[in-house]
Please model this.
Amino acid sequence: MSAFVVVDLTPTDEEKLQQYSAAASATVARHDGEFIVKGSTEALNGGEHRRLKAIIKFPDRDTALNWYQSDEYQALVPLRDQGMDAVFHLVA
Model:
């Protein structure tokens, strides 16, 4: 069954976010993941305090976790944290 990583984010440094996004996208592809959607959000009900959302599809839960916990992705976390305020959720 497919698994999804849902990222809610607000950029804090556009340059660092662009650097992170390029590097992170490569790690996603190497782990058989694909971006389903990236873009701004509009709350239809309730509050929304983060401006953007990304949804990444992986073949299954284990593959999604292997991506997130991989050394190559974890090496990007400091850059990620400089470029955005974000919450990551695994839906599987």
